[in-house]
Amino acid sequence: MTDKRIIRVFPRKTKATPDDENVRINCKPVIFDEADEVHVSVTFTWDLRRAEYLYNQWRWAGFNTKIGGVAFGQPGGEFVPGLYLKKGYVITSRGCPNKCWFCNVHKVQGDLIELPIVDGYIIQDDNLLACSEHHINAVFEMLKRQKNKPKFTGGLEAKLLTQEMAFKLKELKPSSLFFAYDTKNDFDPLIQAGIFLRNAGFKNNSHTVCCYVLIGHKGDTFEKAEKRLVQAWKAGFFPFAMLYRDFEGKYDETWRRFQRDWVIPEIKATKLKMIQYENKDLG
Looking at the predicted structure, is the pLDDT value of residue 100 above 80? Predict the structure, then answer.
């Protein structure tokens, strides 16, 4: 990481938050804290007020304190393993050529850039398949050296997947691949990606081949959302509902309850079996 002792302060803990001895979750300083620098790292815009409070608490305690992160609209630089993401996570590129209305990546990061590749097995890129073939192949070679099976937690765009790339993904024996169904334009590419993945040997609707489905945005309804989730399932992907939240993190609680039914595996599996039994035509 670095020779400096850097305490990293996060307003909330996620699966990707580092867990070493220099990490603090939503904490003010205590008398035993020692550090060369303190970094308050903010991912979600709805945590900005709390993050600024924490920043002031550490700064007033006499620490050399900085604040930043995705929530501030700051473009990311070179990736340092274990600093702001737990060890195992890796970012090999930043940015995305798409300009989706619900996503700020293109506004924050600008043009897609390829980073020096470091070891890791949980790929956190914004859009890995938009990178050059040389970069993607280099990432795959890095993954082959890891002890853990690779996880692609995001960054796989269905319309950029080719049959050759699907075969290369299969060779990696990943534990998870995540695609996305965010707009109606994603549906046809998702169907084609499902065909490529099946041809490569991936099983339909397995917990390996997954798809985030955006729900709860303006104009959406439970019926429309369920249709998209079932469409993703019929295309061969295990669907995960991703609830839209505005800048302040607000959302409708009824949508939150709907989302839970499409995130918790046991409930979701039951719903899909019922839909299959009833033979609903939601395609």
Answer: no
Q: What is the pTM of this model?
A: 0.89
**Residue where the block lists tokens 């903010």:** 42
At residue 247, the pLDDT reads 72
Which letter, b or e, does each residue of 22-38 get, where b requires 16 or more Cβ atoms within 10 Å of its Cβ? bbbeeeebeeeeebeeb
Average pLDDT, the chain: 90
Measure Cα distances from 247 to 44, 47, 71, 100, 192 in Å: 8, 10, 9, 15, 33
* pLDDT of 282: 45
